[in-house]
Amino acid sequence: MQQHRPFWSSRFTYVLAVAGATVGFGATWRFPYLVGQNGGGAYVLVFIVAMILIGIPMLLVENAIGRRMQVNAVDAFGGKVNGREISKYWRIVGYGGLVGAFGIMAYYMVIGGWVLDYIYSILLGDLKIGKGILSAEQTSSFYEKNINNSPLEIGIFTFIFVVINYIILINGAVKGIERAAKYLMPLLFLLMLGMVGRNLSLDGALEGTIYYLKPDFSKINTKLFIDVLGQVFFALSLGFATIITLSSFVKKDESLVQTSIITGILNTAIAVLAGFMIFPSLFTFGIEPNSGPSLVFKSLPIVFSHMFAGDFVAVAFFSLLMIAALTTSLPIYEAIITVLEEKSTLSRKNCILIVLGGIFILGNIPSLLATNILADISIFGKNIFDAYDAISANIFFVLTSLLCAIFVGWVLKDEAKAEILRGSQKYAKLVDIWFFYVKYIIPFIVLIVFISSFYDNFIK
């Protein structure tokens, strides 16, 4: 253990940091549109069950790996077990997580640029939400003009978002993220409650709430299961080195069982809460809920234009998205920065510049050009933006999570249980059940998801 390594000041701040890492566009952008595409309540029900059966146990897996060595996400797969050195090839799992982290940040920061562009356009009146009812044609036209075909404008806003991340990260791995989480997470929660309260007061809120919460079991199929499990990995930041990195700063006497359960519950609650920000208003104003990834950007501005003080509500909503994105991007960046910082002689400032600059040049710029200048480039039949998403989410996240479960169950074995029991002795029987489950059952489930997802995205 490195004596100079900083630690979270309390369990509460660690939970806030992990909640921030796991409550980003996954909960506020991705979850709602997947609910809409998969028929509403059935998806929500399966998602909650999957969070309990897969999400929380896998959080505990990555927490155990991260705190055991208290090093970066690559070296976390090293050390000794029962006096014998662990094969150096296991470190490939850590590098796989970093590739996944790069893949998600390549397009994630660009979505942050979109959100900033919407806030800017609403404030300047370019997107006239408070001046009459918007039509679907108007919002689609705005999206095409300002998002798909304005690479310079989106590039500037993406760069601004990257700079905001840099300013916070320069304060240190724990200090910067902890300070941001302390203020941003409560603000995020308050904004969400305000949006939910506003939506539930609308005349058609009941119909939207029924669609959102009442399961239609005929909608449950293979695609829904794949979408749900993919969302669980995405929403909990599993498989891309983030949780392993954050847990490496946790003190040895903290209860990993409690923090994993609290994090899983909090993430599920906020994701479900996000649906209440959207579906009641969609049904009130007759907007189709199944419009896919563009739901937030094309459909919700129409909803806001129907509301009193709609421009204010729109700015508040997109500000909420911005905060959620920031609390997630910081820890993902940190996962890569920590590896570079601990495996080189470079200063932290230089490591941050290399990571943020490298991702901006190699990931963000190609992603924001994917629908215009580089539109002719196709990878697995997808543009660059979608390819980054598909490859990271359907290959690297899932494979890394699968190998993490195998590493804990078949390599660390009793050492993993001992790590979990530090500060969690009263959960000894629960830990025994968890270990059996992680060793024999979760790898099988994750492997099935990987094969199905790979077939659907890259072969079918």
Automatic annotation (TrEMBL):
It is a multi-pass membrane protein. It holds the Pfam family SNF. Its main location: membrane. The keyword Transmembrane helix applies. The chain crosses the membrane at residues 12-29, 41-61, 92-116, 154-174, 183-201, 228-249, 261-287, 307-330, 351-370, 390-412, 433-455. One of its GO terms (molecular function) is symporter activity. InterPro entries: Na/ntran_symport, SNS_sf, YocR/YhdH-like. One of its GO terms (cellular component) is membrane. The keyword Lipoprotein does not apply. It is found in: Membrane. Keywords: Membrane, Symport, Transmembrane, Transmembrane helix, Transport. Belongs to the sodium:neurotransmitter symporter (SNF) (TC 2.A.22) family. This is Transporter. It comes from Candidatus Campylobacter infans.
